[in-house]
Design a protein that fits this description.
The protein is of the alpha+beta class. It is about 35% helix and about 15% strand. It contains three helices and two strands.
């Protein structure tokens, strides 16, 4: 598992999200969120807006770099 301050989070998603949202979009949506819950909510809301009709799950696990990684 990635560790250290250069990693901000680990993202776990279901196929209801990955079928309509790219990896890059998921990272962008999570980056800069105040909390992991806010990051997960952003991802789920975007997947819904993109037309996902499947069940959706997003779990964000904060790592040492949480809140420090930008870009």
């Amino acid at each position: 598992m990635p560790t250290g301050p250069k990693y901000s989070h680990l993202t776990l998603i279901s196929d209801g999200v990955s079928s309509v949202v790219s990896d890059e979009e998921i990272s962008d949506l999570a980056r800069g969120a105040m909390t992991p819950k806010v990051a997960a909510d952003r991802i789920l809301t975007f997947a819904e807006e993109m037309g996902s009709e499947d069940n959706m799950t997003a779990v964000i696990v904060p790592l040492a770099g949480w809140g420090k990684i930008t870009g």
